[in-house]
What does this fold into?
Amino acid sequence: MSLTLAAPAESELPFLNVSFYRFLDIAESELPVWRASLKARTLHFGLKGTILLSREGLNGFLSGAPENLRSFMGELQSEYPGLAGLDAKESFSSDQPFRRMLVRLKKEIITMGVPMIRPKDTTGPRVEPETLKQWLDEGQEVVLIDTRNDYEVKLGTFEGAEILDLKTFRQFPERLQSAPEDWKEKRVVMFCTGGIRCEKATALAQDYGYKDVWQLEGGILRYFEKVGGSHWKGECFVFDHRVALDPELKETTTAQCFECRAVLSLEDQRPGGHSCQKNNTQAQT
It folds into this structure.
C-alpha cells in the first residue's frame, strides 16, 4: 500500500517528526482496544509522542527513527479502519522532541466544546498553500483568521491576519460570534498549525452564516513545506520540546517556560530575563 506521507527534503538528522489527524467514528467500546493496540505498536517501533483518541477520531504527534516511524505509519493506514490515505506533516530534528509515548482517551481530539460540529460530516473547503500564496501575491481581498491561542500567535502569523486573542480554543465560538458582520460576505481563510482546529472552525463559521470560508490545507506546517515563508512573519509554535520552527521547518532558539507556558526569546532565557507568571519565581526553561 503506498503512503501519502509528504516526501521530505533529504536530511541527515536522526529523528523524523510527524503530525496527523483524522475525523472518523470510533465506537465507545472500541476506544480501549485502539488505545492498547496503538500503545503496543508505537512502543514496538521505539516511538515517542502523543496520540489522542476519542469517538470523533484521532490526533497524533510522533517522533522516531525515520524507518521505524514510516513502518508504523504504514501499519496505521493499512491495518486500522478508516485511516487509509492518512496525511502527515513531516519535519526532522537532531534530538527526540518528546519524553515518552502517550495514548490518551479524550472527549474531543481538539476541544472546542460544540458537540454538534462534526467535521467528519461537514467542514469548510480546503485551499492549497500554493493557491493561498497566489491570492496574497495578487493582493486579493482575503480575511485571514488565526485560530490559534495567543501564546502561539505571539511567535508568528501571516501578515495582516486577524487575531482573536484566544486563551483556549473553547473561546473561538464566542469570538467568532462577535467578529465583524461583513466577514460573512468576504472570502475568509482560517489557519492553524496542522489543520485540525480549522476543520471545526470552518464548520462553525458555515453554521454562523459565512458564505465563502476556507481552511488552509495542512495548516502552517504544510504551507512552510510547500511555499516557505512567503507572507509569513516570525516562527510557528509546535507542541513538543522544539517549541518553534522557522519557515524551513528547522528548530529555532525559542524556548518555553514549562510553568506558565510563556514563549521565551533568547533575551528572556538569560538570567533574570523571565519572571514566571504562574508562581512569580524565576522559571526554568
